[in-house]
Amino acid sequence: MKNISILGSTGSIGTQTLEIVRENKDKIKVHALSGNSNINLLERQINEFEPAICAVMNKENAEKLKSRISGKTKVVCGMDGLVQSVCANGVDIAVTAISGMIGLKPTIEAIRCGKDIALANKETLVAGGEMVMSLARKHNVNIMPVDSEHSAIFQSLMGNEVNKIKKILLTASGGPFRGKTLKELETVSLADTLNHPNWSMGKKITVDSATLMNKGLEAIEAKWLFDLTPEQIEVVVHPQSIIHSAVEYDDHSVIAQMGNPDMKIPIQLALFYPYRLKNNLKSLDLFEIGKLTFEKPDMNTFKCLKLAFEAMKIGKSMPIVLNKANELAVEMLIRKEIKFLDIQNMVEDIMLRHTPVEAASFDEILEIAKWTAANIKKPN
Ligand code: NAD
Ligand code: MG
C-alpha cells in the first residue's frame, strides 16, 4: 500500500490523481489533501477519501472547512500547513499538483523529509531546479515526472541507462493559436485563449499553452530532470498530441512514447512505476487519427518560447524572473487587465532590465521573485 499526499487536490491534476486512487483502492491511499479556495470540493474529497490531514492555504477557508467535517481529518492552514501535509509520517509520495512557484517550498520540505515526489508543478523546477535536484540526490529521493512530455522522455530512457542522450524532441501541440500571426494575436479574447484543442487543464497552464510559455517552462524542466544543455532540447510542434516526446541517441535511433492525450497515463506511471496498471482508458487508434504531423515552432510570433530558452542559457536568476513575471502577467490576463500579447512583452521587458545574479538558495529565489513583482511593468 502506498500513501500519498496531494498538493493541490482540487485542481485538474489533483482530481485526476484521485480518480486513479478511486480505481486502485487496494494499492494506494490518500494520507493528505490540500487546496486553496474550493472548500466545497475539499469537503467532498475528505468525506470520500478520509485523509489524516487536509491543508488549506487561506486561514478563513480552513476554519470554514473545519466546521463542516468530522474530527477524523486534521485541518491545517497556511504554508506551514502545506508543508505539514507533505511531510507527515506515513506519506510515501508527494504529488505536486499545485500551480505556480508557491509549490517550491512544500516540495523542498517534502524532499528534506525523504518523500518521493510525483512532480507536476513545473514552475518549481524552473525557479529552483538546481536546489531541488541537488536536494533530491542528497536525500536519495526519486522525482517522477508527471508532465506528459517528461514522462515520455523518462519512458524513452528506460533500458538505455548506459547510453548518452544526443538530444530530446520535446513535442508541443502548438495550442489554440498555432499558425496565427502577431496581427491576429492582437485581438484574441480570454475565452479563445482558454480553449485548448487537446487538453483540459487549469487556467494558468492553459494560458501558458496558448503563449507557448508552457513549452519554454517544460524545456527548463527537462534540463533539470534529465541534465541537458539547451542545445540538446528541440521543440517540435505536433498538433495531434499523440507522440508525447522522444529521445535521440548517438546511433540516431529515436525512441518515442505515444498514447491518447490523457494525463491519467503519466500520473499513474509516476505513482506505480515500474508497474503499468490496467485502467479503463481507450486504446490508441492510429487508423482513426490517420496522420501525425510536425512543424517548427514560430518563436518570433510566440516570443515566450524564445525568452524561456534565453533564460535557460543565461541561467542564474533569469529563469526565476521569467517564471515569476509570467505568473503575474497570466494572473493579469485572467483578470482581464492586459491583452494576450502583453504577456510576452512584459516578460521580455523585465528580462531586459534584470542583471542575473546567483540565486540557488530558497531565500535568494524568493528575493528575485519579490524583485520581479516590484519591477514588472504593465503596458500603458
Ligand atoms: P489547477 O489550477 O487546475 O489546480 C491547481 C491546484 O493548486 C488547485 O487544487 C488549487 O487549489 C491549488 N493551489 C493553487 N494555488 C494555491 C495556493 N496558493 N495554496 C494552496 N493551493 C493552491 O492546475 P493544474 O492544471 O492541475 O496544474 C497543476 C500543476 O501541474 C501546474 O504546475 C501545471 O503546470 C502542471 N501540469 C498540469 C497539467 C494538466 O494537464 N493540468 C499537465 C502537466 C503539468
Ligand atoms: Mg506538458
TrEMBL record:
InterPro entries, alphabetized: DXP_reductoisomerase, DXP_reductoisomerase_C, DXP_reductoisomerase_N, DXPR_C, DXPR_C_sf, NAD(P)-bd_dom_sf
Residue sites binding 1-deoxy-D-xylulose 5-phosphate per the record: 122, 148-149, 173, 196, 209, 214-215, 218
Ranges in coiled-coil conformation: none
Residues in 1-deoxy-D-xylulose 5-phosphate reductoisomerase N-terminal domain copies: 4-129
Catalytic activity field: 2-C-methyl-D-erythritol 4-phosphate + NADP(+) = 1-deoxy-D-xylulose 5-phosphate + NADPH + H(+)
Domain of life: Bacteria
Cofactor names: Mg(2+); Mn(2+)
EC number(s) stated in the UniProt entry for this protein: 1.1.1.267
Annotated pathway: Isoprenoid biosynthesis; isopentenyl diphosphate biosynthesis via DXP pathway; isopentenyl diphosphate from 1-deoxy-D-xylulose 5-phosphate: step 1/6
Domain 1-deoxy-D-xylulose 5-phosphate reductoisomerase C-terminal: 143-226
Keyword set, alphabetical order: Isomerase, Isoprene biosynthesis, Magnesium, Manganese, Metal-binding, NADP, Oxidoreductase
Positions of Mn(2+) binding: 147, 149, 218
Family: Belongs to the DXR family.
Purpose: Catalyzes the NADPH-dependent rearrangement and reduction of 1-deoxy-D-xylulose-5-phosphate (DXP) to 2-C-methyl-D-erythritol 4-phosphate (MEP).
NCBIfam families hit by this protein: Dxr (TIGR00243), PRK12464.1 (NF009114)
Protein name as annotated: 1-deoxy-D-xylulose 5-phosphate reductoisomerase
Originating species: Dethiosulfatibacter aminovorans DSM 17477
